[in-house]
Amino acid sequence: MPPSLLAVFAHPDDEALLAGGILARYAAEGARTAVVTATWAPGSPRAGELADSLAALGVPGPPRLLGYADHRVPASAPGRPRWCDAPVDEAVGRLVAHIREVRPGIVLTHDAYGQLTGHPDHRHTHRTTLLAVTAAGLGQLYPEAGEPWRPGALYLATHPHSAVTELGELLDGVGKSVLSVPDAHVTDTVDVRPWRERKWAAIQAHRSEVARDRALPGLLARLPRETRDRLLGTEYYTRVGLTDGAYLV
């Protein structure tokens, strides 16, 4: 059985787009899986879509929403600060509580670029997760958040230079930036074709994003199926080892 897995992403839909295959695989193989999402309030429409996405992937339980506002959609969490503006100590402490509750062998999050598009919420999630993974193992930090727990490894969802050409049909004409990493930075190229249908079902669960022309779920929905299947069949990760013995694949 693979180690338990906690994925930390910025927005509802990131879990499906960036790690839907590996999440579906882990859930199917009986590993404990959980997802923390930094933005959007509980009870919002996108929170409901996130719940449907997690169900499609086989990830149990209700969404774990930190409830901060999306950088570009302040109405996503009325009365709450934008994720990028939240006090760092508060944000790290809340994420530490989830790490100590789930006690994952592996934590998965965005890479330093913010994975392809460079969204500021993605980048901030990367930074906050790095801090929280370290803090979670130190008992004198955030003692109110539970017993210390140190994950075995941190993995960053990423995209290599060599695979950027495959995105041409997805990004042509919409002005999306592409922030990729040197191929040598990719430690795990994962074939997720056996779980591709679950991954696509999870992406489609984000109905409001599928309806948007420039959102990635909407762009994928308008591609020929053969092209979409090819794009969704591989995921790329960079391993940041913390202790021995925790590997994604």
Automatic annotation (TrEMBL):
UniProt keyword Lyase, yes or no: no
SUPFAM superfamilies reported for this sequence: LmbE-like
Domain of life: Bacteria
Matches recorded under Pfam families: PIG-L (PF02585)
Keywords: Zinc
Protein name, as recorded: PIG-L family deacetylase
